[in-house]
Amino acid sequence: MEHLYGSNVVKAAIRARKRTFESLLVYGIQGKDLETVKLARKANVRIEEVSQKGILNNLSGNRPHNGLVLKASMLTYSRVRNLGRVQGEDYSLEDTQERALKTKGRYPLWLYLDEVTGRIQFHLNLLISRSSEFWCFD
Fold this sequence. Notes:
The protein has 5 helices and 6 strands. By secondary structure, the chain is of the alpha+beta class. The chain folds into 3 domains: 2-72, CATH 3.30.1330.30; 82-106, no CATH class; 108-138. The strands form 2 sheets. It has a 4-stranded mixed sheet with strand order 1-4-2-3, sandwiched between helices. It has a two-stranded antiparallel ribbon with strand order 5-6. The longest helix has 17 residues, at 118-134.
């Protein structure tokens, strides 16, 4: 079980419907984000009113929670093993072995940055470039 906290995170998780939900813990339900509570009710999430804010503080690791903590299942991730040729909007995985032979056993992985403007974004671009070099992006 994982604890998701904060109104935007809770709303996004409920809308995505990629997890199972145990309950939504709410501190001071009268003054809370009613949209989130309504969304939870619509998704058949059990709503528990909490009388002590410290409970939510403990569940969120003392991070900002906006009076909302959602107990949800862990999110499962897909593991990407091969990247193939892109044809329109379809991804092909059939030529990855052939490409690996041409690149000495490495599968090329590209990083594309778009609309990097301004001084702050330029410095961010340098940081991303250094990290991508470490992770062997081509």
